[in-house]
Amino acid sequence: MSQLIQDTPLIVAGRRFASRLLVGTGKYRDFDETASAIAASGADVVTFAVRRTNLGQNPGEPNLLDAVPPSRYTLLPNTAGCYTARDAVRTCKLARELLDGHNLVKLEVLGDDKTLYPNVVETLAAAETLVNDGFDVMVYTSDDPIVAKELEKRGCCAVMPLGSLIGSGNGLLNPATLAIILEQAEVPVLVDAGIGTASDAALAMEMGCDGVLMNSAIAHARHPVMMANAMRKAIEAGREAFLAERMPRRQSASPSSPFAGRING
Amino acid sequence: MQIQLNGEPSQLDGEQTLAQLVDSLGLAGRRIAIEVNEEIVPRSLHAQTRLSDGDSVEIVHAIGGG
Predict the structure, then answer these.
(1) What is the number of CB-based contacts under 8 A between chain A and chain B?
(2) pTM for this structure?
(3) Which residue in chain A has the smallest CA separation from B62?
(4) Which residues touch A116 (CB under 8 Å, ≥6 apart)?
(5) Is the pLDDT reported for residue A232 higher than 80?
(6) What is the pLDDT of residues A104-159, one digit of tens each?
(7) What class does CATH assign to A20-244?
(8) B66 and A34: CB-CB below 8 Å?
(9) What's the CATH number where B26 sits?
(10) Lower CB density within 10 Å: C or N end of chain A?
(11) C-beta atoms of B60 and A98 within 8 A
């Protein structure tokens, strides 16, 4: 076991996390399933959305934050559903008030509701405003290496390119550009969006991503708790494979059993 | 007095503080955040923040999301 490389924790804006899997809380059947799946995933960081309170709702109605208590998880509010920098900044400020000053946010500014593709112009503007206002900004973005670098220059504490469209489950559609982003990044890079199954998550980690953020891949599996467990293992396996440094690919075969000593030799 | 509450017109009986509004909505003690006219009003100031006619109030909470 002495040959195992001791992994370092994921560090984002000075916060240390044992798990490199970050999960969302959307699309579950109920809060029980949400809590069970997230526990099985082993995630430390859990995203949520900020929405208008339903007025006139039953005051005793359970709250998401009872299922994923801030005392146990690092909550990561998102700006999902925002189409302008202005709305995203407002949402982050509401989230900071909601969480008593907690300033780590996931910024996402969308371009349209068909693709949910990020609007990088608005994202860049919002990132700058939020960083200047003291937020630690983990930013959802396209897999464009130039935009990723620009977001890093604006002080984002993690860059999170999409693997494929949000909720699509299409996996990593452009590993080549992701590799460029990873090569040049000086902040953690996490794949956010598009993961469909365990091998997608493992591949992202094998490539050297610092973490993966997913929601639908777990919540929309037929058995979410089992998939959450599978994702935990995939993230760990992919990370270890990255640290172990894979063998080179070759065009020719190379026998694993020696030629010498064959009975037909 | 009329305000906009989460995007809908809402009639209030007389002058109210934000804390009184929260209480009347059954939201006292809940984990919420409030914006009045697009400015955050910290929890600690709800009791002393008086609402005015035409104010736009947003009350939000956490829900499931990615």
Answers:
(1) 100
(2) 0.93
(3) A50
(4) A110, A165, A166, A167
(5) yes
(6) 999 999 999 999 999 999 999 999 999 999 999 999 999 999 999 999 999 999 99
(7) alpha beta
(8) no
(9) 3.10.20.30
(10) N
(11) yes
